[in-house]
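Follow-up to my earlier ticket, as requested here are the two runs.
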Amino acid sequence: MKKKFLITLSVVACALLLVVGSIAGTIAYLTSQDTVTNTFTVGNVKITMDEAKVGADGKALTGEDAARVKENSYKLLPGHVYDKDPTIHVDASSENCWLFVEITDEIAAIQDATTIADQLTAKGWVAVAGETNVYAYNQVATAGNDYVVFETVKVKGTVTNDELATYINKKVTVIAYAVQQDGFDTAAAAWAAAKTELKPNP
């Protein structure tokens, strides 16, 4: 009887192993997968600069005649105030950037207060250490915004005709530069790194 029981138990055990084996062969595991695809586009820093178009009196034109231009011509007169508002436009698609201007002011000696240099300070422009006539904007410039460099030029009322005659064809030239903000904590660091590229022939 004992032998018969053991045989029966063995048969049952074998049957259970077959069933378990069959189930194990059809188990579907819970799985998951995912893919991250990084698409890189090229960033850019893009600025433009212009100023208000002026009439023969050096005043900005208004109404239908108003426009933004790359240059103006002025007739110097003692005591006269001229509208000149070079403005840097940071393109809407541009990366944040540090702005710089290089100014050649050939009529500085006959300017009345407030001079171009005074206005630069008031507008947030700071002289770049170790450079001549180069100024940095004191904050990060952001996309889609405009940054005025200065707004007017005033000739001293005490300037004589003979003095004015020595200023024929003299100019005020403004060159704007921009360097990406990313990677640079300060304007000074950005200028130091990019100076050679911005001004390859100093």
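Run two:
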Amino acid sequence: MATPRPLAQSDENRVLTTAVSRIASCWKLTNEQLGAVLGLSPATASRLRSGGFALDRSSKAFELGQYLVRLFRSLDALMGSDDAASLSWLRNPNLDLGGRPIDLIRSIRGLDAVTNYVDDFRAQV
């Protein structure tokens, strides 16, 4: 059996860019919201979604995109792959977090807090 080849950097960039774009569509994020999460302008977020821009492994936006994927996967597992339930959870105020998760993830600190909160909650289940 052949060992799988490691992903080339361009493949990693493409895979993460596609995943982030799909998450943005699933969660109905505007280009402004997606840009805020990734630290990009709304115009660049628009190009990312249309395939005209790819996240680069050496950038902060790539790291934030990885966090976004981690949050998506954790929330998806917690909600039993119910996209409507995930979207509802994101858009409603959370007393533990002190705000709506969809608003909190616009900052690095908020994205980290929301991701850790969901991971911690999953660990209890």
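The only thing I checked on run two: The mean pLDDT is 89. Let me know what else you need.
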